[in-house]
Specification:
This protein is mostly helical. The chain has 13 helices and no strands. The longest helix is centred in the first third of the chain and has 31 residues. The radius of gyration is 19 Å and the shape is globular. The N and C termini lie far apart (about 50 Å).
């Protein structure tokens, strides 16, 4: 008898390959969101950039959720959770966009990618998932890598260098909430409702911040160039989000998760081409440490069939 394992069906293999291609495209597009955000934040406050992103994304997704005809299936209880998710994502986005005014794109994204590490720890604390000492060690190593990037940035810009960590914590919390909602709700509807709630919360923040003089909360009337940047933020975020949704429909999240870390590479390339920013040797060391610890955590998750990182994969910075 042959000991060969049966080959997977051709259709399954092609689906997985399609998922890998779509995720690769999403990883390529996602840093462009931050490039447009950094260009816009020179004249537009963070909260307004975030509001524009929510507005354009919601408009792009509206035809899809209407076509799927399940927009009104959401219960009041689910709407409450969507409102909380919208608030959390709003804090995450405003924190990250504010960072881009003071830090290079690649540095901010690299620090943000401690998010799978944070999710692993939160899953252990609040969801009572079993996390062994190896993964805890990988988390500690990943944070050490983040410190290599944060420390020189902290000396240059102060506490702003910690905002990507705030953003990462918010995304990790949102990822845990996604688990409960994703079991009974369409992902398109989830994203659409989150966008609406995020837009509403941003509108309230901007109304309250009007006249404050804050470069985060005080709205301005953008000029033509800034308006194009805002449109670019929303459109690229919608494209990255749609690519991500279809990628996860085609391939397992555990298969796609490692590809997210290559966003750091594409972000570095785009930031170098547009702004001339390029990480120094110490920051590259921190980046590789974060990536290495993340890959190890993903490998351990796949080996023991637990899924904290899988959920993270569906909660990227392009919701």
């Amino acid at each position: 008898m042959s000991n060969r394992r049966p080959s997977p069906p051709v259709s399954a293999s092609s689906e997985i390959m399609m998922g890998l291609v779509l995720m690769s495209l999403s990883v390529l597009v996602s840093p462009i969101i931050d490039i447009f955000s950094k260009l816009a934040i020179a004249t537009v406050p963070s909260a307004e950039i975030t509001a524009a992103r929510f507005a354009v994304q919601a408009l792009c997704m509206l035809p899809i959720v209407l076509w799927r005809r399940n927009l009104m299936d959401t219960t009041w209880k689910q709407s409450f959770f969507h409102a909380i998710r919208g608030a959390i994502i709003t804090v995450s986005m405003i924190s990250f966009v504010t960072t881009l005014k003071y830090m290079p794109v690649a540095d901010a994204i690299a620090i943000f990618f401690v998010e799978p590490i944070i999710l692993t720890i939160l899953s252990s604390l609040f969801l009572k998932e079993t996390i062994g000492w190896r993964r805890y060690t990988a988390c500690a190593v990943g944070f050490a890598g983040a410190i290599l990037i944060i420390q020189p940035s902290f000396q240059e810009v102060g506490y702003v260098a910690l905002l990507p960590v705030v953003s990462a914590v918010c995304i990790a919390i949102s990822a845990m909430m996604n688990r409960a909602l994703a079991q009974r709700e369409d992902p398109w509807v989830m994203q659409f409702h989150m966008g609406l709630w995020g837009l509403l919360i941003c509108a309230i923040i901007l109304v309250l911040g009007h006249g404050s003089g804050s470069d985060v909360f005080d709205p301005v009337r953008p000029d033509t160039r800034a308006s194009l940047y805002l449109l670019g933020v929303g459109v690229t975020a919608a494209i990255a989000g749609i690519l991500g949704v279809y990628a996860y429909r085609s391939a397992p999240a555990s298969t796609l998760a490692p590809l997210q870390y290559f966003e750091i590479v594409s972000a570095t390339l785009f930031a170098w081409l547009v702004f001339g920013d390029f990480p120094d040797a110490i920051k590259w060391l921190g980046i590789f440490i974060i990536m290495g610890s993340g890959f190890y955590i993903i490998w351990r998750e796949r080996r023991f069939a637990s899924k904290p990182v899988s959920d993270t994969s569906q909660s990227t910075r392009a919701p």
